[in-house]
Every structure is written in C-alpha cells, then in structure tokens.
Amino acid sequence: MELKVLFPGFSEIIQPDNNNTRANCTCTLIKGPPNIIVDTMTAWDGPKLVEALQKNGLSPDDIDYLICTHGHSDHIGCNYLFQKATHIVGFSISHKETYFSSPDFSKGQEYVINDGVKVIPTPGHTLQDVTVIFNQDEKVYAITGDLFENEQDLDDESIWIGAGSDNEGLQRKHRRKILKLADFIIPGHGAMFAVPHMYHLWG
C-alpha cells in the first residue's frame, strides 16, 4: 500500500475586518488494495479530484473506503463521487442505505480495515472526529483532519483553538495520544510533518 497526499490543505484569513477565511482541507489517498480516500474537500473540487485519481491510475469507482475525519463541508464535499465505497463520516459508517452500528466509536472502538489501516475516534474539534492510522515500513502515519490544523499549532495552540473546538479538553487529550503514537501527521489544513521525537517520550 502507498500513501499520497493528493492536495495539502490550507486556511488563511482574506478579509481581516470581518474575519472571512479561505480554506480547504487536505485530501489523502491510500492506494491499495483496498483503495482509500480521506477527506474529499469542497463540493466544487470534483473535477480536480477525479483528475488526481486518474493520474494515480484510479477512478472514483475504484475507491473501496471513503473516510471523512468529520462532517464539516470542506471535508465531505465530493463524497457523492464514490458510489461503490463504504463511507465512514465521523462516527457514521454506511454503505448506500445501510448504516452499521459496529464498531461503536463513541465507546472508543476502532474500525480495522486491515493490518495496515484502522480508523480510531479522536473527538475534540467536533465530538465525532476520527483519525486514520496507516502503518508502512515501521512508520506510523496519522491522517487527523482538524485535530491538528498544521505543524505550527504544535507551538501555538491558539491556531487549533481559533479554528474551532467543540471540546478543547478532549482535543488536547487526543492530540497528545496521536503525538505519542505517530511518526508523521497529515493535518487538516497544512502539509504533512514529522512528529518531533520529544513527544514520543511523554509518559
């Protein structure tokens, strides 16, 4: 399996007087099988997402799992493209008109796709956030959505708090969990970054 960041996310204030923001989320492909797309950007991004998949030898119908780290509009906009995939949107797991009650993310249970990929609950930014954990070559990659905005929020928590947090305490708890676990983080609105070694030493 191979992980590719198709589009790194971004977020910037464009009109300071009224706090308007220009933003889009990071979109990540795990090329398998199974083929997995994580966070599908806005509803206006369909053509460029299809083109990016084609460059990787895939079409939307080749995607087996669509995972959205949470339900905000900049993370779910192109879900409609993936008609054959199982959809995991936050804590909701469905295929077409069938919704599955297991695993129960609200009880801390994990969705295991295979030995290399699983989905774990990491609420905080919203109360139904999930993170995708991908293991490759003895390295752990965490695709976190807005649990982490970007690498800069490691040193400036006002960045992730200012982006919105339904529960700051939960978000801090799950950020700490991911920092101890992961070698690399793919955040919601920035480039992938390596986790500084000091975080792996936390008790």
UniProtKB/TrEMBL annotation:
SMART domains: Lactamase_B. It is found in: Cytoplasm, Cytosol. It catalyses: a ribonucleotidyl-ribonucleotide-RNA + H2O = a 3'-end ribonucleotide-RNA + a 5'-end 5'-phospho-ribonucleoside-RNA + H(+). GO terms for biological process: RNA 3'-end processing. PANTHER family: METALLO-BETA-LACTAMASE DOMAIN-CONTAINING PROTEIN 1. Homodimer. Endoribonuclease that catalyzes the hydrolysis of histone-coding pre-mRNA 3'-end. Involved in histone pre-mRNA processing during the S-phase of the cell cycle, which is required for entering/progressing through S-phase. Cleaves histone pre-mRNA at a major and a minor cleavage site after the 5'-ACCCA-3' and the 5'-ACCCACA-3' sequence, respectively, and located downstream of the stem-loop. May require the presence of the HDE element located at the histone pre-RNA 3'-end to avoid non-specific cleavage. This is Metallo-beta-lactamase domain-containing protein 1. It comes from Ceutorhynchus assimilis (cabbage seed weevil).
